[in-house]
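Contributing new records

If you add data, match the layout below exactly. Sequence lines come first and carry their own label; structure lines follow with theirs. Keep one chain per record. Anything else will be rejected by the validation script.
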Amino acid sequence: MGPVRVRTSHKIPGSLALSVQNQGPTVQPNRNAIGDTIYRTTEHGDSYRYRSRARRADQWIPRMRAANKALSKRRKDILAYIRHTINAL
């Protein structure tokens, strides 16, 4: 069983809060403070990184093409509106 994760945003009962506060560091400090900090955060599960699911090339290329086409059309419409407004002055 791994270490218990305590979230500070939730209310903790008094007896549990005292036991959590009185716990000493789980790792002895060493001269390499950066490595020690990284080890502590990974030990307590605070530095998990969630990777998005990989997509195959044939899944995202059509979506990107459609997005770029829509953005290009919107850009042209905005520029046409600006030209029209300036010419109307």
